[in-house]
């Protein structure tokens, strides 16, 4: 027992490494039931009629890509499969490349055309003032889209004068933009709001779910995997959950084993 307490940490790291490699190579399936917050976003999209306008705020940069890009892709699959009009934008200067890649790659799978079925407005500085500007008039906030087209001429924006005309807004956040959308957007212009965020931000968002200021929430890689499963587009998030889940199980087993060894050893010393 004394030897087990003093086990070399490198052995533990080696076991974790083997577990990750095996889980990636074997590619076995794990059940991924959808949590209530994730289900909330899914059901909102399901409830929207054909041609409804959905805005996606790609409020993240490459450092958060692994968690948030899978959410964006799964969400876009859901929107395009239901023939919704998609409007993309971002508050982050490092996001346009990721956003454009996600929108164009998914749109092409559904034969959706830029300007007719979806619009990418691109990046513009301003943060909360930009939200207020879009809430008053979308076309003064974005006279041109990401490609330089006059936004007033784009068919995908017909019927949309401001945020008041958005049927649903989905913010993919790596920072504090969700709170900004709630305070300066939703509360003033009365649109439905959902969000996806990195795992570290997730717990701070639950009060907004409880107050109904968010209709749903995707938190971290787990939330992305749940949404991929819901829309039947299992991809990188579902694959990423395998090694993560296996490692979590191994860590729990190590914690249980360590406690058993510790208390057994202490009891033997006092016997």
Q: State the secondary-structure class.
A: alpha/beta
What would the average pLDDT be, to the nearest integer?
91
Side by side, the strands of the main sheet go 3-2-1-4-5-6
**Shape label:** elongated
State the CATH topology of the largest domain.
Rossmann fold
Structurally, how many domains make up the residues? 2
What Rg, in angstroms, do the CA atoms define?
22 Å
Query: What is the count of DSSP helices, taking H or I runs of 4+ residues?
Result: 11
Largest sheet: 6 strands, parallel
How much helix is in the residues?
A: 40-55%
CATH architecture of the largest domain: 3-Layer(aba) Sandwich
Please state roughly what percent of the residues sit in beta strands, choosing from under 5%, 5-15%, 15-25%, 25-35%, 35-45% or over 45%: 5-15%
Instruction: List segments where confidence is low: pLDDT < 50 over at least 5 consecutive residues.
Output: none
The number of E-state strands comes to 6
Distance between the amino and carboxyl termini: 15 Å
Query: What is the H-and-E element order?
Result: HHHEHEHEHHEHEHEHH
CATH homologous superfamily of the largest domain, by name?
TPP-binding domain
CATH class of the largest domain: Alpha Beta
Comma- or semicolon-separated keywords:
Rossmann fold, alpha/beta, six-stranded parallel sheet, elongated, 271 residues, single chain
Notes on the protein architecture:
Helix 2 (9-26) runs antiparallel to helix 11 (236-270) and helix 6 packs parallel to helix 8. This protein has 11 helices and 6 strands. The chain folds into 2 domains: 2-27 and 243-270; 36-234, TPP-binding domain (Rossmann fold, 3-Layer(aba) Sandwich), CATH 3.40.50.1220. The relative contact order is 0.17. A 6-stranded parallel β-sheet has the order 3-2-1-4-5-6, with helices on both faces. The mean pLDDT is 91. It is an alpha/beta fold and 271 residues long.
